[in-house]
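Suppose a colleague, Dr. K., hands you the sequence of a protein chain of 91 amino acids and asks what its three-dimensional shape might be. Before reaching for any lab equipment, you can write down a predicted structure in token form. Begin with the sequence itself:
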Amino acid sequence: MSLENVDFNKATIIDVRTPGEFSMGKVEGSINIPLNEVPDRVEEFKKIEGDIVLCCASGNRSGQATMFLEQNGMSNVYNGGGWQMGSMQVV
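The predicted structure, expressed as tokens, is then:
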């Protein structure tokens, strides 16, 4: 799915990198849910209202998480790619 129509001011940004990677820099307001925890937290993802943009270091892990969540019935998830790229504000 395309990020063109996502309002980043309203979307929930979830970073699927490790806690160590996340602590070294992140998108402002993002939540850290490491990729290995995604399968156990599907119900938590489903409770999030609005669009969810997943990011990581390069877009690979966020792509895996996006595909997994889509396969589990979610249609509001997007692969945002690398956390330092795009229109998200980095802190």
